């Protein structure tokens, strides 16, 4: 997953997570096709792809929720509600999310 200096916010992380989700889904489809063709050695790969897909799906959903929350906060600040974004907390959260992505992607 590439994160350029320009794209290091939560939306970039969400896009990367969705890309990861799509990649795992394709691996699962390939393993499933091979199973249908009688390649029983693909059972382990299919099971791992299902696990990875579940993790990636949860990350996508978590990030979408987080991005929506940040958008509402930004809209509130722009609208004069007096709220402030905690950029240090946002950076820390993004770091935690990146670590989760690295851990999830490092197993295969």
Feature tags:
disordered N terminus, 108 residues, elongated, mainly alpha
Walk me through the structure.
- This is Permease.
- With 108 residues, the chain is an all-alpha fold.
- Helices cover 76% and strands 0% of the residues.
- It has helices at residues 10-36, 43-78, 87-105.
- The chain is elongated.
What is the H/E order? HHH
The percentage of residues in β strands lies in: under 5%
The radius of gyration is 18 Å
User: Which stretches of 5+ consecutive residues score pLDDT under 50?
Assistant: 1-5
Tell me the quaternary state: single chain
The number of E-state strands comes to 0
Mean pLDDT: 76
Gross morphology is elongated
Span between termini: 14 Å
**Overall SS class:** mainly alpha
The biggest beta sheet reads: none
Give the helix tally.
3
Query: What level of helicity do the residues show?
Result: over 70%
Outline:
With 108 residues, the chain is mostly helical.
């Amino acid at each position: 997953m590439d994160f350029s200096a320009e794209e290091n916010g939560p939306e970039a992380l969400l896009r990367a997570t969705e890309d990861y989700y799509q990649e795992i889904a394709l691996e699962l489809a390939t393993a499933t096709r091979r199973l249908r063709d009688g390649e029983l050695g693909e059972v382990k790969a299919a099971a791992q792809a299902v696990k990875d897909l579940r993790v990636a799906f949860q990350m996508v959903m978590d990030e979408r929720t987080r991005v929506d929350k940040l958008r509402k906060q930004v809209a509130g600040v722009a609208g004069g509600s007096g709220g402030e974004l905690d950029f240090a907390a946002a950076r820390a959260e993004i770091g935690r999310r990146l670590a989760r992505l690295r851990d999830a992607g490092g197993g295969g």
